[in-house]
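Q: What does the assembled structure look like for these inputs?
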Amino acid sequence: MSESESSRVPHDDNLQALTLGTDVRLQDLVDHEALRDMVRSFHTLFGISLRVFSSDGLLLAESVVGQEICHYVGTLENGLRACMATVSKARTIEPAARSKEVTHPCFTGAQYRVFSIDYDGKKLGKAVLGPFLPAEVTSVPDTLLAVDPKIDGARALELLPRMPRAKTEAISLICDHLRRTLDLILWSGHKALLTSQMHLSSVRESYRELQQKNEKLQEAFDRLRELDRLKSNFLGVVSHELRTPLTSIIGYSEMLVEGIAGPLVGDQQKFVQTINDKGQQLLQLIMSLLDLSKLESGTMNMKKGTVAIGQLLSDVAATLAPKARKRSIEIECTVEPGLPDVQGDPDRLRQVFVNLADNAVKFSPEGSTIYVTAGPKSLDDSSDEEGFSLLEPSRRMIEVSVIDSGIGIPEDERERIFDAFYQVDSSSTREHEGTGLGLSIVKRLVDAHDGTVRVSANHPTGAIFSVVLPAAAQRSQLGSPARRPG
Amino acid sequence: MQFDFAAKELIIKLVYYGPALSGKTTNLQSLHVLADTGSRGRLMTLETRDDRTLFFDMLPLTFQAEKEISIRIKLFTVPGQVIHGSTRRLVLQGADGVAFIADSQLAETENNAAAFVDLRDNLKANGLKIGQMPLVIQFNKRDLPNVRSDVELVELARRGKEPVFPAVALSGQGVLETFMGLLNRTYAGLNAQHNLKQKFGISDNVLLEDVAKKLGAKVPVEELLRSALGGTPAVAAASPGKP
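A:
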């Protein structure tokens, strides 16, 4: 199926038939109960029986009272036959659309009027009004007296005038009024039906349109996700390929610095050292990119185990001590006693805290102190969560904070610093030798440990980076609850 | 178009399309006033809020042609507001001809163009090509200040394909001309496609004259059609191919 065909509006035959009036039925336009009420009320007002038929011959409503003369005639054998013939003849009369009403006479002298019920120039049904006795009939007609030899003329004369009477012109006016009333009802019914059908069709069409747009969005989304995956792959491959020649550059420059290829003279030593330093820096950047692409593509290999957080933080402090000492910065490590282990990859967690502490050293003023603390996560005062008192104790979390008194991070930047390549002040990249990847790697690594990382302000200056990690499950608490003796 | 052989009825659906508040409903109201009581049905307006059409207006007109054939013309308007796109697509289904009612005010230039692009897209969504749809354009509200000038209108119409009718629908000016222009093009198209003349023996000239008379025309149809600016002849514009 081509795109233009699949996006085509399906043809709404119902709506089309309804709007063009090609398939409109009387029974669809009127409420049956309301029509019956109207017919009854008409009968009460004029005293004349009324029947309404649809164009397929269905009796939709009637209000009929048997006439005494008819009962009497019905008791006579020939009378009954003649009566039935008259009634069934009245039923078969089908006046054409937009024609005048048809008069159908009865042998009693009474009459029926049959007229078509039209809507928008089309016949939808018919109404049969009667029997009634025209005002002009004053004596018992011969046709009634001749219907059966056993008929009692005096009885007929007594009963005939009890039939509802009306003048011929009055009946025409009544028919006209009834036609107009029905037309209004049909018009209102058609309008209501069309409105509801239109509502339905519009909703269906809007839904179809939305559905179609959703499909396009989903396609675009899938395509973007695939592109993102390709980008991560590409980044991984390129980083790897860059690293190989770089290793040679670093290795050979190192050998040159060490004098393996002979002593360096003058500025040579300094120049080669710079090549080596910058090579190392480039390697760091490439390693970070590689980490980031692995983390983004979800291909980072995590060797999860239990990590003693106190030991880990001491290692981190020791690693950064030489760098800190150069700027007379102290790193003070405080770990609360009895802190449970953390579930995670020791190398990756080490990377997280080295990164954070390294940042702290970079941005702290000379002679200041950096505090690294670890303890159970402080609980908030209250929570909206259902079953909090049951759930919270099972989620034992450990919070590690790296606190510096450096330049701090403005409040509106705190969300974005974890984006890749983002730096609060882009000029600081050069000044502080950062790649802008450290924090984004931290964030992704912490995420991969089901933890959270956030930054807040230290007073009066500086930043606090808090990492919350889940504690490793304690075996002793599972499986064997203490039993009460007895 | 639908032809009901049993009832000897030809049903033609014409749609008045255009931007919001350009006077589509006013055109139908004016036609309703013009038509004689025997030919016009009630003007049905479905769901309005603050005098704005939400679904559509419908005006049925019925004319007796030769050989006891009745021609039933159903006129529809679409809701002009942008959000009613789905309703516009539904109303366009089965349309035999379209009158595009544009607002002459210069400030409405963009809205006119956007509504026309919307018409083209919605016809396409219904599997119809705008080039195959009998189409006339009405520039309404000629009595307002800051409208596109007559000279410009004549020049634009001369260069375009569709006949352009200037109108003031509120006072009925140009309304009958637009309708007759549309019916003429639509009928010519249907005739070419279904050979109505030969099949049913309805001659278009007699039919058009009769319709115009019942809509209160004081002059021959030829003269009404001549009030159009520009446009290629109707029969040539109508495509004999299937839509």
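The mean pLDDT of chain A is 85.
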